[in-house]
Amino acid sequence: MARREGPLDGTDPVLLEFARGLRDLRTRAGLPTFREMAASAHFSYSALSEAAKGRKLPSLEVTRGFVRACDGDVAEWERRWRAAHAAVTATAVAADRTPGDGHDAGPVRECPYPGLAPYRETDADRFFGREQVVDDLAALLRAGRFVAVFGPSGSGKSSVLRAGLIPRLAGQAHRVLLFTPGPRPWEECAAHLADILNLPASALATELGADPANLSALVRQVSANQPDAADVVLVIDQFEELFTLCQDATERHAFIAGLMGLVDGPGGPARVVLGVRADFYGHCAQHPDLVRAVRDRQVLLGPMSADELRRAVTEPAKKAGLVVETALVTQIVADTVGRDGALPLMSHALAETCRRPRGTTLTYRAYDAAGGVAGALVRTADTVYTAFTPAEQRHARDLLLRLIEPGEETEDTRRRIRATEIDRQDSTALTVLAALTDARLVTLDQDTVEIAHEALIRSWPRLQTWIEQDRDRLRAHRRVTDAAHRWAEADRDPGLLLTGPRIESATDCTAHETTAPSPLEREFVTASRALARRRRRRRRALVALGVILVVVAVTTSIVAIDQRADAIWQRNITLARILADRAQNEQYGTFDTRELLAAEAFRQAPIEESRSALLAVQSDQSRGFGYLPDEAVRGITRHTPSAAAFSGDGQILAVAVRSSLCLWSVVARRCERPVTLPDRDIVGVALRREGTELWSLDRARGASDTTPAVLRRWNTATLTSRVVDTTDTAGSFSIAVSRDGRELALGGDGQLSVMDTGTGRVTYRRSTPPGPVRGIALLPDGSPLSGHRDGTIHTWDRATGADRLVCADPGGEIASVSVADNGDDLVYTTGGMISTIMRRSEPDHRLSAGGGPMRMSGSAITPAGDLIATVISNVAVQFSDRANNTLTGRAVTVAPRAAGYSADGAIAALSDTGRDVRLLDTGSRHDIGALQASGKEATEMEFTSGDREIAALNTDRSITVWDRATRTIITTIPSAPATPVAAGDATATPTALRASLVRLGRTPPDYDPGDGTVAVSADHARRVIAGNGEARLIDTEHDPTTLPMPDEKITSAAFSTDNRRVALGTRSGKVVIWDLATTTVWARLTTTNRPITRLAFTPDNTHLITGAAGTASNSPRPGDLIWNLDETANLERICRNVNPVEPDTWESARIPLPYTPICTPPKN
Length: 1164
Fold this sequence. Notes:
Blueprint: H1 13-28, H2 34-41, H3 45-51, H4 60-69, H5 74-95, H6 131-143, E1 146-151, H7 157-170, E2 175-179, H8 185-197, H9 201-210, H10 214-223, E3 232-236, H11 241-244, H12 249-263, E4 270-277, H13 281-284, H14 288-294, E5 298-300, H15 306-319, E6 323-324, H16 326-336, H17 343-354, E7 361-362, H18 364-370, H19 372-387, H20 390-402, E8 404-405, E9 413-414, E10 417-418, H21 427-438, E11 442-445, E12 448-451, H22 455-459, H23 461-469, H24 471-489, H25 501-511, H26 519-583, H27 591-604, H28 608-616, E13 626-628, H29 630-634, E14 643-646, E15 652-657, E16 660-665, E17 670-676, E18 680-687, E19 693-700, E20 710-715, E21 720-723, E22 734-737, E23 743-747, E24 749-756, E25 762-772, E26 775-778, E27 784-787, E28 792-796, E29 803-808, E30 814-819, E31 825-830, E32 834-839, E33 842-851, E34 856-861, E35 867-872, E36 876-881, E37 898-901, E38 907-911, E39 917-921, E40 927-930, E41 938-944, E42 949-954, E43 959-963, E44 968-973, E45 981-982, E46 987-988, H30 993-997, E47 1013-1016, E48 1022-1026, E49 1028-1035, E50 1041-1055, ...
Helix pairs in contact: 2-3, 2-4, 4-5, 6-7, 8-9, 10-12, 15-16, 17-18, 17-19, 18-19, 20-21, 24-25, 24-26, 25-26, 26-27, 26-28, 27-28, 27-31
């Protein structure tokens, strides 16, 4: 049961009545405990308990939470809270004491602290702490005619100038003109000169704008009435407004020139003092005359010392007859010293403390109640804002955002606005302005309004959130405001109205509730839209006449346009051929460069040569979307990489290059902060998932493999390392880190071990198959996975010590192994020749991730399993992208001896050396099943009879035919007299070819392809018969068409499933794709130097599968290649990989065109 509250202990009747009401509400709700209420109110139970004690008024948010927890009427209690807040505030101001603090109030005294506002000239007698700075400024001004004060926002520049320097100058009879530049500095200057010269300000502004030199003449008129020893001094505070508010660059430059004209030479007519926010120092540096003036005549205003702060607190209080508690002085100095921009916060906190005196004493208790330096301003702003009604809060947000100038690579600044930007007919807006002014958050000066100090922008989180939410809209709104004022000042000149897209931008901006338009802005936008409508009507009236004239002009120019278009097309074709030739020539640079050349060739003209180049770059050794360029690594050392490891997000690849480490950014495609270990060889790297830490193994250069390696732990942010003390690195060859970074696996000579990265203690060790363990990884469950000299990969159960054979690869020693986060996908390199992806759950199905005749030393897979990096000596590091299916040379089996494809390319029949024939789904790479064993070893395979049957040519020259549906043998044909060829729906030897083709209709009776090939289209309407030097295209309705292939022996053929193209493979390893609609070559591919024996299009015709006969001893495992024929996809891949292309890359590619960002349409 809830404990009843103690008696009300406050003294203020308003607070007591409010607390009594809250208690009654809780009683009617059944007296829930404050802890129960806290759970639903989302406030602490102590805050809810304090709300009902009557000592002080709780915040509106706490009140709402209390009422909701007791199922009360929230709207009614908001009304009661606002009434109580108004009454308590009025009482506190009248008594000049803290509401309900129980102290007797002394006499009402003027507060000696200005709050957020700067000290003014009239405050000179209470301005303390900056005396030395004022002395320095005065000395510089006596010695010269110019001085600039720089300091960060909140350092007190305005106070130093206004309450320190100006009174000192006035005491010496100098005439001082103080102003801020604002959006129109000549108008501000003219207004102050006009008061002295008794001339119209508008006339003076026009005169100054016409020639900056006129400023010197006008100032001389002012100085003519000055005593001989007195000068005119222009003090320009907040000089940064010249860069933030003045949008007219011409006026800005002229104003600076005019000021410099005043101080040039010893006999200048005036002295000039500037107050500038420090972060605008660079803006000043853009003006040479200003740079010369500032160079030796500047004062940098830093933070006040503890002694200066103590004087700034105590001395003004003494002047006002107040005493500051010692504890308060100590605390406020501690809260302020060394803190940038804290002076206005300190002044505001003191001003709030002044509202709560104990007699004539300013107390720590009152300071703490106000919120102190850190919280007083926020508390004041939040209190004022939360006291507003929802409608008033919207007006407050609109007004405060109007008073902000969003920074452009600088901090946000305050903006002085004309009072006319506030709707004087809107009583709510006026109420909000009055409340903000009363709280001294906003200052109202004659016809302008501005935020009291930029400290409010920096310190009030609510205002900062508003600015960030509407930053772009605020910038657009400022442009509308400035344009509207220029229009009004020019007597609403129609020539200054908005046009085109700027009208819609202004309409969208002013329609938003946070940037509601002022009456002038609304009138300006409305007038702009009306003018646009009138212009559209006039344009429509001219369209009819224009159409007639255009028709005549177009008719006479069509011939010229066609001629020009033809010339441009011929130029583009020529360029495309040049670029395509270079793209396929290795002397034109790296793979990236050749990709760029291919893309640019196709962009110029999509012809056979450029299309062939675009497709051909797939077969480069990068085998995917990119690679780490050789020169990027050789820039560190002249040796190729030795190991690699990915970060968890796949964005960073750590590459070991002999004695150097490179953190390669996959996105930016560059090496970040390379570091070198002199005279050491790095033999292994492991990168923590978050990318924050890196481990490496290294030995002294030339040391044997049995020499203990040094284990280092690197901070990747600083690339500094420390040596890990462990005795388990003798004979270590490989290293891997667990997902959580807590364990490290080390592969040694016939053993592996796991160590704790925190303590360096070995937690697991066991023997492995003989030889060095060069591939090591840790599975998600912590089990080690290792690759060995005999080509096997094992996993090890740490609890039982049992090992499980993952796979045995005939390619030789496992050089490296890396595992994805799912623990199933892994990539390994074998025999130094090829990198393979596989799944532990499907060890018989593997995918080639790249390879070549050059030696490989390692590979890595991202935790997501979508990106593979292979360390290869001839291209440094090559990348392959599984997610985008861009693995050119994707192997569909481990080691097929023979393969055949269905007409749609969806099913493959594969024969291995074990004399088994299996069916494979080429899309999912799933095994469909085995055919009935024939006991023979197949060398060639084809689908026949509309893909209903599968035929194999065996090593003994016999032919076996299976039924695809039942997978059983239909018949076996004894040894054939010659090599069979596939005729689509028949299998025949050359001697029986005529008999097979009798059914094809108009086949030439005397045509003999020799040892050639035959293919049938999917609709059986077309056949291609290919032999030496040419192929014959035959259909049932037209005469045969010859597809010339000079000097080529055609060894295979395949139609696309839509019958639009036919691919012909040759003995020299080339593939020519013909467009059958035009009977022209669509593209040429060079795959290998071995005969192409297998061709098939995929069902969607976007890919072509090619297979070659035979295997060279120095080549990767035989595997069929899948070519992406989609031009758009290839172009997008290159654009994605090569971009951004810099002009120097363009130049290095020797492209004979002006630099153009890649992947943009060519200009005709």
